[in-house]
Amino acid sequence: xxxxxxxxxxxxxxxxxxxxxxxxxxxxxxxxxxxxxxxxxxxxxxxxxxxxxxxxxxxxxxxxxxxxxxxxxxxxxxxxxxxxxxxxxxxxxxxxxxxxxxxxxxxxxxxxxxxxxxxxxxxxxxxxxxxxxxxxxxxxxxxxxxxxxxxxxxxxxxxxxxxxxxxxxxxxxxxxxxxxxxxxxxxxxxxxxxxxxxxxxxxxxxxxxxxxxxxxxxxxxxxxxxxxxxxxxxxxxxxxxxxxxxxxxxxxxxxxxxxxxxxxxxxxxxxxxxxxxxxxxxxxxxxxxxxxxxxxxxxxxxxxxxxxxxxxxxxxxxxxxxxxxxxxxxxxxxxxxxxxxxxxxxxxxxxxxxxxxxxxxxxxxxxxxxxxxxxxxxxxxxxxxxxxxxxxxxxxxxxxxxxxxxxxxxxx
Length: 412
Description:
This protein is of the alpha/beta class and about 400 residues long. It contains 13 helices and 14 strands. The strands form four sheets. Strands 5-4-3-10-11 form a five-stranded parallel sheet, with helices on both faces. Strands 6-7-8-9 form a four-stranded antiparallel sheet. A three-stranded mixed sheet has the order 13-12-14, with helices on one face. The longest helix is centred in the first third of the chain and has 19 residues, at about 55-70. The chain is elongated, with a radius of gyration of 22 Å.
């Protein structure tokens, strides 16, 4: 698949401290320590509906990781998938009497438009599960051969499952107890009650072909992959056995990221798969998490169609901390529009107060676990001084504008 178009990334003089991020696996804010090339995998959409603000908040968070690393001089190799074959997509296509391929292509195209409008830096590799089918099935075959996977004893549908006991460290990423794992497995696409599994929590790797379902030929027999192994295969084949950041929403902690890490580690023997497991908070509407299943969605495309500036949407979402569960309120857009107008007015002045200290604070706050509320406040302070005292530094407005563009992704 082709990703969306990129945007210019201004060079800003100086540098900031190393990026520190909260790691779910250790429960600590720790420094990231990538080499010259930083490796990041962020789980993509299942394209059966348009991009809602919960999606947007997650991808904006990891866009900031990308930007802070780039500002520090790292080459960032960023990979994202598209789950363009899975039960939710098929169910939506049946409900709407739509072709599942057309539905997936249409919603993926809209997602790309939304990401481009929000000025999210595109991934180097944007890979659909369908186009990666052969590499996914090859990984499942290797897990079977290594004894990390097994076929269920079902003469009609001998599906392949991952053995959660295959790695001694299973459970380290989420740190959940077994009861929580079982509850979340049932809630998030697993099948803990299926007879014949070695352990109820074991995750599907390959689903043998059923009547009237899409399927593909493979060394495993005709079928299609489970959800978690899709991301593992795509990440391993483009980023290697160990990556710097595995990202997604907090609803992916278990089972998706737990099993993705286990699949990778069982195959490569490298532990941990990711040095940081990072999870963005959920966006709520009317007190409930914004999700497709609940139908309580605010769509980026709808806001854009209503004439909302995408930079205001971006600012509204960045006004909350990336890890915090938070509510979407109309007042957020009102405040974001006012902030955006004030920033734009300030950077169009012929001169302003010196901006070097503000840029340093901006870098410092973002390096501290992406503290966007404090980062925005630093820019607000410069803006107030610029528009009330005017200032005498003719280079300051351009410096501030470029820093806000590079580090926050806001075009002024």
